[in-house]
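quick q for whoever's on today - can somebody do inverse folding on this one?? i tried earlier but teh output was garbage lol. tokens:
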């Protein structure tokens, strides 16, 4: 099984887990993220565009949970890392627009975007056997390398990485909640 297929299966497992919980609890929701629509040819084109509107759509949270008095957005993260562009989009939605965004992480728990804590990382990448540019002690940014280094980095990963900037979630320091917190937020029935 390829790395892509493994990631896809992990994502499906976690989205199924959330779907089942929301259905069992009779909580109203709909799938709002790009992931659910990228199979459509027109939606897939967004992947290649770097403008702010395309990135907003591409990194929009996966689920919209509609409550009796409130609506929240939930992003499903099946890995330990988060892309910088993705986090920046969530931060704008959360901080600038005061939208509630939760992440469902691989530990099957929820956290607020505002509560995320990232690991400080070393610039040395043992797989590529080289130092990678780091920003703010947390963001690993391979695309900031010169072209020769970047190509070496991609080759070390057998071209199975996008090379995007990312950070690792600190699962010990981030505050997490059980899914049942959704029941306590006064969400209406489906």
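ok took a stab at it. sequence:
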């Amino acid at each position: 099984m390829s790395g892509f297929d493994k990631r896809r299966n992990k994502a499906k497992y976690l989205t199924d887990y959330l779907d089942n919980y929301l259905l069992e609890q009779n909580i109203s929701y709909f799938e709002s993220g790009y992931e659910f629509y990228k199979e459509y040819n027109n939606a897939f084109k967004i992947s290649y565009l770097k403008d702010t509107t395309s990135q907003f759509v591409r990194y929009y949270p996966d689920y919209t949970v509609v409550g009796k008095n409130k609506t929240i957005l939930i992003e499903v993260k099946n890995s330990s890392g988060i892309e910088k562009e993705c986090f920046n989009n969530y931060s704008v939605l959360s901080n600038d627009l005061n939208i509630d965004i939760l992440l469902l992480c691989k530990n099957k728990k929820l956290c607020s975007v505002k509560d995320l804590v990232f690991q400080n990382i070393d610039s040395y990448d043992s797989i590529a056997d080289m130092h990678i540019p780091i920003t703010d002690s947390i963001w690993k940014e391979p695309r900031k390398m010169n072209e020769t280094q970047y190509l070496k980095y991609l080759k070390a990963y057998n071209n199975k990485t996008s090379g995007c900037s990312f950070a690792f979630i600190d699962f010990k320091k981030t505050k997490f909640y059980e899914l049942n917190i959704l029941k306590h937020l006064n969400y209406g029935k489906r």
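fwiw The first strand starts at residue 29 and ends at 31. also Residues 118-168 form one domain. so keep that in mind when u check it
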